[in-house]
Design goal:
Layout: H1 4-17, E1 22-31, E2 41-45, E3 50-52, H2 58-69, E4 79-83, H3 87-92, E5 100-107, H4 111-122, E6 126-132, E7 138-143, E8 150-152, E9 155-160, E10 164-169, H5 173-184, E11 187-192, H6 196-199, E12 208-210, H7 214-221, E13 227-231, H8 236-246, E14 253-256, H9 260-274, E15 284-285, H10 297-312, H11 323-346
Parallel strand pairs: 10-11, 10-13, 11-12, 13-14, 14-15
Antiparallel strand pairs: 1-2, 1-5, 2-3, 4-5, 6-7, 6-9, 8-9
Length: about 350
């Protein structure tokens, strides 16, 4: 499943190329609770079709109603709309806790600018899109720094990035569950496994499957700040070399499946044989996932995906949710219970 922003922009371009009038709506400010973050976009066609969202649904319904009552004209300048100013209005539009949301509406965005923007995104580039608030004129600039939406002077600036990418080492059952979840969360997924017996049974569509040596694949993949690398084979010959290459990149997440003992052994191998240190291995995650008591491949995939999304979204999870720490705590409790039981037997 493609990144939602790119999906919205593609559909908007499709409408415009087919002589359909359309609006691009962007969340520019929120106060209190808000269902969608600043920078979220949606497109509305003159036939009532919608792609993307700016709230939980009620605001979309009102925007569609206004679109029906006031047909789009190419001469219309951009405008700001605010919802949830009063508690009654916030309740009416489904905004939680009295939240308020402000939107920026563009009428019939320029086709050439949309084509250029989507072309840059398809090439994996990060693009700063500046819109003149009075005229609606769009300027595009390639950038290397992700940024939050801002209003600067007479321009509204929203930065669009390429899809987040996930590189999975290993094509087993756990990888299929994780790949499926990653696709639904807007990641472009590549699976690497040189073992024919695993690749031959891969069943998840829309995933790029490669069979080269994992370390070579990581080098070719060129992981960046929108990339995560997850090793799931349990085979050091495949996992370790891929992880070593990934640690030299800007990947926002690098991790491997395995027990606490196996992950400790992996780190020690890297220290003993590849001149790493505890400091240089600080980025390496393992055992990966958050502790939810998962035992089946599907539940373990949920655990891993949750941790990856937390890191992507800059959420600091409590250390007690880390698999190793949680299991160590459980072990202490189990040992204490066992000691209490043995003590009772001796009384």
């Amino acid at each position: 499943m493609e990144n939602i922003d790119i999906t919205v922009l593609r559909e908007l371009l499709h409408w415009r190329l087919n002589d359909k009038a359309a609006k691009l709506v962007t969340v520019v400010r929120t106060w209190g609770s808000s269902p969608r973050p600043i920078g979220s976009i949606m497109a509305i066609c003159d036939n009532g079709k919608v792609m993307g969202s700016v709230s939980g649904g009620c605001i979309e319904d009102d925007l569609i109603r206004k679109n029906t009552q006031n047909p789009i004209t190419s001469q219309s300048p951009p405008e700001f709309l605010k919802y949830g100013i009063s508690a009654d209005e916030a309740h009416r539009f489904g905004l939680p806790c009295g939240g308020t949301i402000e939107l920026f509406v563009e009428f019939n965005p320029d086709i050439a600018a949309l084509k250029t923007l989507i072309g840059h995104l398809d090439q994996g580039k990060l693009v700063k899109r500046s819109v003149n608030i009075q005229s609606g004129k769009v300027e595009l600039a390639i950038t290397t720094n992700p940024a939050e939406l801002e209003i600067s002077g007479s321009s509204l600036i929203n930065t669009f990035g390429p899809e987040y990418r996930m590189l999975i080492i290993g094509a087993g059952q756990l990888s299929e569950y994780l790949a499926t979840m990653a696709l639904f969360n807007g990641f472009a997924v590549t699976v690497c496994d040189p073992r024919e017996e695993y690749v031959g049974h891969w069943a998840v569509a829309n995933v790029n499957v490669v069979t080269k040596s994992p370390d070579d694949v990581v080098v070719d993949f060129k992981p960046d700040a929108r990339t995560c690398v997850v090793a799931l084979t349990h085979d050091p010959k495949l996992d370790d070399l891929a992880l070593l290459e990934a640690l030299e990149t800007n990947a926002f997440y690098v991790g491997a499946i395995g027990s606490r003992r196996n992950n400790a052994a992996r780190k020690q191998r890297m220290i003993d044989h590849f001149d790493h240190t505890d400091t240089s291995l600080a980025k390496l995650r393992g055992p990966i996932g958050i502790f939810i008591g998962s035992k089946t491949p599907s539940e373990i995939a949920v655990s891993i995906m949750a941790e990856i999304l937390a890191v992507k979204n800059n959420v600091q999870l409590p250390r007690e949710m880390e698999v190793a720490i949680a299991k160590n705590a459980l072990l202490i409790v189990e040992n204490d219970d066992l000691n209490d039981e043995n003590a009772c037997k001796t009384i």
